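G., the chain you wanted modeled:
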Amino acid sequence: MENMLYAEELVREFLVFRGFTKTLQAFDSELSTDIGKGFQVDKIIDLIFSVYVPTFQAEKLVGLLNFFKHCLSSAPERVYVDTLRKLEVSILRYYIVHAVQSGRKDKVVEFFGMNGNELLQRGQDWSPWF
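Predicted structure as tokens:
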């Protein structure tokens, strides 16, 4: 985490040095909405279960999970990738169940419309859900 903060400060210093004030403002704005939340687990869990799922933001939820898959795709230990895949399946199923229980079948249809083909290609994890 310290390395990340140090890198951010270096980027800020460079932008100020070069006079890229608008870029610096954009950089600071992007950092405030950091999708990875600096990999702080409690903030990520809060984002998923207090924001994305209750407000039916499936596109952002899937985007966040894809972001983490991309980050871990180069991990030398395959167990991380497998664990993330299982976690992803569980979170997406939770989203669907939450939508149905909330009476938002339109969100379920929207979710499967956006992600259905990809989920079907994954095989046995999703086949029974179709």
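The first helix runs from residue 2 to 18.

Shout if anything looks off.
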